[in-house]
Design a protein that fits this description.
By secondary structure, this protein is α+β, with helices and mostly antiparallel strands. The strands form 3 sheets. Strands 7, 8, 9, 10, 11, 12, 13, 14, 15 and 16 form a 10-stranded mixed beta sheet that branches. A 4-stranded antiparallel beta sheet has the order 1-6-3-4, with no helix packed on it. The protein starts with a strand and ends in a 9-residue tail after the last helix. The chain has 6 helices and 16 strands. The radius of gyration is 23 Å and the shape is elongated.
């Protein structure tokens, strides 16, 4: 049975293509059905048949005869925030939400072991706060592996997403990590490699010469402390100039200092796995106009397990790093 669907374009839908708005707003509608409706002139924008490439303006009324099963995404039941650790919000504003992600929590994807992904929790937190939008959905703006903790940025508006993503593309954002490495590293290094991703194994490797799928990876490494003994460890600060999948893990292993506990990449045994924390995020001076009010520097406090381990290995050096 068909019904006349009525959707009103909101601020984040302004100047977006009609077909893209409909694809976002109606994710359950088959693409072939959507194109057929547009071809036949059965999608109206302010009473006039619309084409897929037409730009929609804020406040425009979109009408179409759609099956009842094709429920607009904005009208679907809001996700429930499951019990567990609350979101650790480091800053919110300018269309962004900056969080300190805990270890072991997936950023997105389906929920596992009855624990909501970080994205699910963020959507539940934002649902009562954000204005309606047909085509915009909040989401993470960069990667962070499930075993990795620390800073991650979500968009809460289309303008915020575009501004932050533009800074990422221009490599204007300085991202610093803390990691515990195997072996003794006693001088600053720059790791420059080309990496290739093996999707079947879920690993990244240094690429063979001439590999067309290879991607540049560049990481600057600054050792902060070394532990004594026959099996030493190094606490290091790492700044990434690129953002490849498993970049730090793969490069650390390739340069003879795998992350302690990262068995996937040849690291030594360590209870609770490896320690890698997205520690700081620094923005260039000229961001006040595009991201008003956002601090130039954000710091994510270390998780308890990381703090305990560096105290065990390095003693007093940990005091100046933990905060």
């Amino acid at each position: 049975m068909l019904q006349d669907l009525r959707l009103t374009a909101a601020a984040d839908d302004d100047n977006r293509r009609l077909d893209r708005i409909l694809r976002k707003a109606l994710p359950d509608l088959p693409l072939s059905h959507l194109h057929r409706l547009l071809r036949k002139g059965r999608v109206l924008v302010d009473g006039v048949p619309g084409k897929g490439a037409d730009r929609v303006r804020v406040g425009s009324l979109i009408q179409a005869p759609l099956e009842e099963a094709s429920t607009p995404a904005a009208q679907k039941r809001r996700p429930e925030l499951r019990r567990g650790a609350p979101l650790t919000i480091l800053w919110e504003g300018a269309g962004l939400l900056v969080l300190n992600k805990p270890v072991g929590l997936a950023v997105h994807g389906s929920d596992r072991k009855s624990v909501a992904s970080l994205e699910t929790q963020v959507l539940a937190y934002l649902a009562p706060k954000l204005p309606p939008s047909l085509s915009f959905k909040p989401g993470p703006l960069h990667r962070l592996d499930t075993p990795t903790s620390g800073l991650i940025v979500f968009s809460t508006s289309l303008a915020g997403a575009r501004s932050f993503s533009a800074l990422l593309r221009s490599r204007s954002i300085r991202k610093t990590y803390l990691a515990l490495l195997d072996g003794r590293l006693d001088r600053d290094e720059i790791w420059e490699d080309t990496l290739v991703r093996d999707k079947e194994k879920g690993k990244s490797f240094p690429a063979d010469p001439g590999d067309d799928d290879a991607q540049e990876a560049r990481t600057r490494v600054y050792p902060l402390a070394q532990s004594p003994g026959p099996a030493p460890h190094t606490l290091a600060r790492l700044e990434i100039d690129t953002g490849r999948t498993h970049q730090i893990r793969a490069q650390a292993a390739a340069h003879g200092h795998p992350l302690t506990g990262d068995r996937k990449y040849g690291g030594s045994e360590q209870r609770d796995g490896f320690l890698l924390h997205a520690w700081t995020l620094e923005l260039p001076e000229q961001t006040e106009q595009s991201l008003p009010g956002m601090p130039r520097r954000l710091v994510a406090p270390l998780p308890d397990n990381f703090r305990r381990r560096i105290r065990e290995l390095f003693g007093e050096i940990a005091i100046g790093i933990e905060n």
